[in-house]
Amino acid sequence: MQKGALRLVRCQDCAMIYANPVPSAYASGQYYDETASGYYLSPAKLESDYAPVRFERELKLFRKYSGCGVVLDVGCSSGAFLYQLNKRYPGDYEVIGLDASGPALDFASSRGVPVVRGDFLDQSFDQRRFDAITFWAVLEHLFEPRAFLNKAWSMLKPGGLCYVLVPNMKSLATRLLGARYRYIYHQHLNYFNRATLSRLVEGQFSIREFRSIHFNPVVLWQDWRSSGAEVSNEQRAALLKRTTAYKQNPLIKPMKVAYTFSEKCLGILDLADNLAAVLVRKPS
Fold first, then answer.
1. What is d(CA 114, CA 60) in angstroms, rounded to the nearest whole number?
2. pLDDT tens digit string along 52-100?
3. Exposure of 3 by Cβ count < 10 A (0-12 exposed, 13-18 middle, 19+ buried)?
4. What is the DSSP letter of 148?
């Protein structure tokens, strides 16, 4: 698949779809520390990330299996997930966020979220071990996702949990739109489906739960109409703000019921926008 300068190829051995070649700024994380910081710290993005509804699905899944403990959020960006976790469940968790984007971490610190700066693969955390490590919408951005999962395995306590959320390459949106879908773009280096994600984690983890979640019909409609025109970071932030406002608007409750039903049906069929997996660390 070709989309502008982005070229996707499929591995003949494992069927994984990935970008090739990968610009050095994306492989190293430099892009997120420099160019992307304006997006992560834009008022629309921050307002949406810190809205109570922003991580409701992730929080529900996380609380189902991790009621307390020491938590590391890899790729924490502005710290919103950890902020919501501590705000909703004060005293239950000791949290640390890590990211390559210095400006985003500065904001996280300003909201009281403890952070570590740099490459996850280079961190020792003073030999500390965690009860849970999260990768919310992170693995698709990584040049070496398997190395990050191996590192997570080494940082978890025996029986510790790893939470993963990635875009679903076999979602309804991807099937209908193909390369026109806005989430097939240069920042995403890896494109997962249930089989390839399962294969990636099978050596170090067992899967406790695997589900397909999230559905954004506004994105589907907009990308269909625009025929795959490039979506700027400003437009992405504006849409996130708009959809977050929809979720919090009590006047559209009947539409929410229909939306929830649609999302549930798509999830059962593995056609929702994202894949979420709860992984258990296997013994060494």
1. 22
2. 888 999 999 999 999 999 999 999 999 999 999 999 999 999 999 999 8
3. middle
4. H
What's domain 2-281's superfamily in CATH? Vaccinia Virus protein VP39 (3.40.50.150)
Instruction: Provide DSSP, 180-229.
Output: GSTTSSTT--EEB-HHHHHHHHTTTEEEEEEEEE---HHHHHHHHHHTT-
Write down the residue that tokens 């994202």 correspond to: 274
> For residue 176, what pLDDT band results from cuts at 50, 70 and 90?
very high
- Residue 116, beta-bridge partner list: 98
Distance CA(159)–CA(179), nearest Å, equals 39
Q: Give the whole-angstrom CA distance, residue 266 versus residue 172.
A: 8
Q: Tell me the per-residue pLDDT of 106-165, one tens digit each, with 9 for 90 and over.
A: 999 999 999 999 899 999 888 899 999 999 999 999 999 999 999 999 999 999 999 999
Helix, coil or strand: residue 237: helix
Q: Residue 37: which of 97, 83, 105, 113 has the closest Cα?
A: 105
Domain boundaries, the chain: 2-281
